[in-house]
Structures are given as structure tokens and as C-alpha cells.
Amino acid sequence: MMIAVFIVEVWRENFLIVCLDIDKxxxxxxxxxxxxxxxxxxxxxxxxxxxxxxxxxxxxxxxYTYLIATVLWLxxxxxxxxxxxxxxxxxxRTGTVxxxxxxxxxxxxxxxxxxxxxxxxLEQGISFYFGKQVCFNKIDPDYxxxxxxDGNKVV
Length: 155
Prior knowledge:
Layout: H1 2-19, E1 20-21, H2 30-41, H3 45-86, H4 92-122, E2 125-127, E3 134-136, E4 138-139, H5 141-144
Antiparallel strand pairs: 1-4, 2-3
Helix pairs in contact: 1-3, 2-3, 3-4
């Protein structure tokens, strides 16, 4: 379950790094409010519309992966709690290990799910790869040079 979350997280981060960039001088909403709107007015709407749709798609997959993993973790937590405390309880260490492991997972899911839901609702490229939220807020200049106005890849 966590492996799937990490795979989707790395896949999405790779997309963000290739297509978008971080500019500390610009606000977090700059990509949605300025970049995509400016490109649409300049007749480059197709190219940036595809990038925006791709960003939304990556955010959606990221969100639903976290949602499914959280639900599976919750089911696993409840069923494991019944088994551990009903049939396999040895002493105080059993409960300590069980709750410690689940608290670490819960902490990861709360932070990751918060980033995923914010990224999806705000239509932003929010990164959580290093445990700190960073917002990709402009289009990468290298990515801009790879595509023409129609969205075709330039060789």
C-alpha cells in the first residue's frame, strides 16, 4: 500500500520537476492565476491547456492514491487491532509497538492527504517529497522551449 503511494508520489514529482519550476519571488497561485491565463490570451492556449490538464490529472491520481491507501490502512488498523488485542496480546510492548507503527503511518497519511487535497482543489503543483510543502508556481523555461504553440514537440 505504501509502495504504491511512493511510486505515484515519485512519478508526480518527476512530472512537476520536468514541466514546472519554483520561483520564490512569485506567489503560490501564480501558475494558475497568471501563467495559464497569460498563455491563453497570447494564443498559446492549446499548449498550456494540455499542461494544465496534465497537472490536474497527476493531482487527481495522487489524491485518489492517498485516499485509497488511507482507507486500506484504516481497515488494516481496525482488523489488526482486533487480532492483536484479542488473540495475540503478550504484554505492554505489544500495544506500544502496534500504536507506534500506526501513529507513524497516520502522520504520513495526514500530511500527504492534506497536500494531495490542497493540490487538487487549488490546481497547484504542491510538492511533499522532502516532507516540506513547496509550490511549483511557474512553467519551466526548458519545457517552454520543447513545444510550439500548437503543443507539438520541437525536435
